[in-house]
Specification:
CATH topology: Jelly Rolls
Number of domains: 1
Protein name: Putative cupin superfamily protein
Helix content: 10-25%
Shape: globular
Pfam families: Cupin_3 (PF05899)
Oligomer: single chain
Number of strands: 9
Structural class: alpha+beta
CATH class: Mainly Beta
Organism: Cupriavidus agavae
CATH superfamily: Jelly Rolls
Keywords: Signal
Distance between the termini: 55 Å
InterPro entries: RmlC-like_jellyroll (IPR014710), RmlC_Cupin_sf (IPR011051), UGlyAH_Cupin_dom (IPR008579)
Largest sheet: 9 strands, antiparallel
Order of helices and strands: HHEEEEEEEEEH
Number of helices: 3
């Protein structure tokens, strides 16, 4: 019985030492309800930009892949309107889930949609049109293949 116990202990120790010898353990990253409700914007690593018209936006990245091509996080913004020209168009793929507020997207062909809190939209790379909002908070996922080549 003690021999089996010693073997089990030795095997467990070997597994622990082997896993730490090969680098850091990769773990999932969770955003809590409190963070999604706004607490995330007071954490370290958050950036705030102030526009010339007095509006501000706040970006709270949660995860960026090692190559920089994939990023998740939360973002909040005051009112603004942005025209995205056909060339080059929207610079990356983005999934947006609106926690509060919303956005009106008018594509270059004149078609438009409104996305409100509790809804999501995916904006493909190259999209062109008008992005208008009275303010929002979103959870985002970005894929930017060009970011990987810049690293």
């Amino acid at each position: 019985m003690p021999t089996r116990l010693c073997r089990a202990a030795a095997l467990t120790a070997a597994l622990i030492l082997t896993s730490t010898a090969y680098g850091e353990v990769i773990k999932p990253i969770k955003s809590s309800r409190a963070e999604i409700a706004g607490a995330i914007f007071s954490k370290p690593g958050v950036s705030v930009e102030h526009g010339p018209d007095g509006t501000s936006s706040t970006d709270a990245p949660v995860h960026t892949s090692a190559d920089g091509a994939f990023q998740t996080g939360m973002y909040k913004s005051g009112p603004f309107r942005e025209e995205i020209a056909a060339s080059p168009g929207f610079p990356y793929e983005e999934f947006l889930y609106f926690v509060s507020g919303g956005v009106r997207l008018t594509s270059s062909d004149g078609s438009s949609m409104t996305v409100r809190a509790g809804e999501s939209v995916t904006i493909p790379k190259g999209w062109s049109g008008v992005f208008e909002t009275k303010g929002y908070t979103k959870i985002y996922v970005i894929y930017d293949a060009a970011a990987a080549s810049r690293k």
